[in-house]
Amino acid sequence: MPEFQSAAVIGLGYIGLPTAAVIASRGTPVIGIDVNENVISTVASGAIHIAEPDLDGLVQKVVSTGSLRVSTRVEQADVFLIAVPTPIDDDKRPDLRNVMAAVENISSVLCPGNLVILESTCPVGTTEEIARRIARLRPDLKVAGNDNAATNISVAYCPERVLPGRILSELVNNDRCIGGVTLHCARRAQRFYKTFVRGTCIATTSRTAEMVKLTENAYRDANIAFANELSLICDRHSVNVWEVIDLANRHPRVSVLRPGPGVGGHCIAVDPWFIIDSAPDLARVIRTSREVNDAKATYIFDRAVALIEEHPYASVACCGLAFKANVDDLRESPALEICHRLSARYGRRIKIVEPHIRELPSSLSTHGAELIDLDEAIRSCEIAIVLVDHDQFKMIPLTERRHLAVIDTRGIWQDMPMREFGVLPPS
Questions:
Q1: Residues 179 and 269 occupy one common structural domain
Q2: Contact by Cβ (8 Å): 160, 136
Q3: pLDDT tens digit string along 297-334?
Q4: pLDDT tens by residue, 401-424
Q5: Band of the pLDDT at 276, cuts 50, 70, 90?
Q6: Which residues are catalytic?
Q7: Final residue belonging to a domain, choices 199, 228, 263
Q8: Quick one: CA dihedral 19, 22, 25, 27, positive or negative?
């Protein structure tokens, strides 16, 4: 008989839903739990509420076969996997209310032999706190890590490390770092992940696994900050940053990333603050990287305002709202921040081109901004601000966009013989 005969996934967002579908497709019955009734009704119908290649077909299959059920109420299972949002508050401190609410919900149905796994990105020590909280809520259970006696509830941490647009493939093929509050917990969680993961599943402590996740995103944030800071310096010296990076990267031990309008997404723009909050006196490079990347959106906004003021009656095409190319995810997107500020200032003159969404966020539409397609934007606008390097934008030849005054924050229209971001400074 299989060790894990059922699983419950708490949170059916960008990570939880694909994870639930993959587990269900491997033969383990899954109950997906979410507090959003619209999400539940959508998934129950076999549809999806997020854009991710091939996810719609997989969800439709596992729902139709009964392998994946959904509910707003938690049910008993052998494994409970928590994949809820962990944002930061207004003071840049971790907000773990969603995680702890999930822990309280599952505690009421826990049974001896259950395995609780946290996948949400959290500060170091959170998994241990979950074990302590379960022990307080359910004193009838013996929770791992709380005493030296035999335990019957295992608690572990396994962060996701997937790329939007390739989630299904990376959920299965990427290596996983699996930390337990005890080594026994880590081994149990390791056995569970091996039921659907082809990548190497490496067991460690929960604190190490938590720090690994934060390290991965802080490292990427720092490297992006270097590129963004370099772009500002090149701008000041009238040097083409894209050429500088291309030539510098010919060095065999140099690999500079490409700059942009900032950093977005639910991971890189948020997770480094967890490290900063835990060690503010030590995390100096990490803090500076966050500040550099957060400030980049204001820099681009100021550049856009300067260009628009030179063309007082021009319509402005803001190309891209997502936090990265070829996805619909707007979380923490610097492009969205820039467009919001521009629409608040210029109203109906701002036209938004985002091929991956069907309607604008209310923060934009209330100011009069309009969602239009790329062809219409090129025909009707005089200014273009490239904020996201969607493939669709890359396909527009120079002959069709020669009339546009451009700020290109992603370096995809470098052949424009006009003043561009990273090419010539403002006059």
A1: no
A2: no
A3: 999 999 999 999 999 999 999 999 999 999 888 999 99
A4: 999 999 999 999 976 444 444 444
A5: very high
A6: 213, 267
A7: 199
A8: negative
* Residue (of 278, 342, 332) closest to 304 by Cα position: 342
Distance in angstroms between the alpha carbons of the first and the last residue of the chain:
74
Query: Rounded to two decimals, what is the model's pTM?
Result: 0.90
Backbone angles phi, psi at 4, to 5 degrees: -120, 105
- 239 secondary structure, DSSP code: -
- Give the residue among 117, 105, 171 at the shortest CA–CA distance from 144: 117
| Per-residue pLDDT, 426 | 47
Specify whether 187 is located in the same domain as 247. Answer: no
What pLDDT sits at residue 363? 85
Length of the chain: 427
Query: What would the mean pLDDT of 231-246 be, rounded to a whole number?
Result: 95
CB 338 within 8 A of CB 318: yes
**CA-angle at 366, arms to 360 and 372, nearest 5°:** 40
Q: Which of helix, strand or coil describes residue 330? A: coil
Domain span at residue 81 reads: 7-199
Nearest to 328 by CA among 356, 304, 358: 356
Total structural domains within the chain: 2
Task: State whether 252 and 188 are in the same domain.
Answer: no
- Residue 26 domain flag: yes
Could you tell me the CATH number of the domain that includes residue 256? Answer: 3.40.50.720
Q: Is the pLDDT of residue 165 over 90?
A: no
Tens digits of per-residue pLDDT, 329-377? 899 999 999 999 999 999 999 999 999 999 999 989 899 999 999 999 9
Query: CA 164, 168, 173, 177 torsion: positive or negative?
Result: positive
Tell me which amino acid residue 397 is: P
